[in-house]
Amino acid sequence: MAFRPPAREGISPRKAVLHGTVPAAPQYWAAEAGDSPFPAGALLEPGTRLERPIPAWYHPEVPPEPPIPFDYQVLYADEHLLVVDKPHFLPTTSNGRIVRETLQTRLRVDMDNDEIVPLHRLDRLTAGVVVCSVNPRTRGLYQRKFQDRQMHKTYRARVTQPLQFEGTVTLGMSKPHGSRQVVVDPAGTPTQTFVRASGKDVELQPLTGHTHQLRVLLNHLGSPICGDDTYPVDKGLALYDFSEPLQLVHECLEFIDPICGARRQFFAAQG
User: Is residue 114 located within the same domain as residue 184?
Assistant: First the structure.
């Protein structure tokens, strides 16, 4: 396996390409490269002159962040998987603005395991089941289940307007550059979602995965989700406004385990 420094405080190292001279800070380690004069993993001394561009690993400086006052609940754990119930407002992984206060970072620190990697992502505002890999040797088997759409997801939403509907909806979606909103676009990426609704409680089973797919769909049907800060009106990004949770929960995830062949079914504690 190619060299990669361990995470620090649950935060993964990053890769850069150095030119000219090794900087004084932060510390850099040589990355795997066929034409590098440095063995992979070698600590690069500050001031070392570089005859060619050199790929290297380093740990980014991450400042303290305001705490997000909600935490996960462990639903299941074994030697391959860790399944948790993610709360509203906590990002699954770093979104660039929040790095420390994420589900992945918290789990790595709490479990003392740098190998914890979420196998899928929920929006920051969405709560519910998240499945993580804890074993890099078997991670690819579970990732392939997601890639092949063999993970069956069920979401539950509370909407602002009553909706009577049952069936599969196909919509094209795209995200204009610079916009927070995803729009319905016949020329966009095709999405499919099974919807069952009778009143203000809606069951959704996405058959594809697109940013904001369920939020855009319900807004398109005239029943936006309660607490949605982006649809139908973009109210702006407020990372630390916890006053109104988005009423969308990933309620259940079902799949056939690729290792033991058992049928797995995980439910959100708050579902």
Answer: no
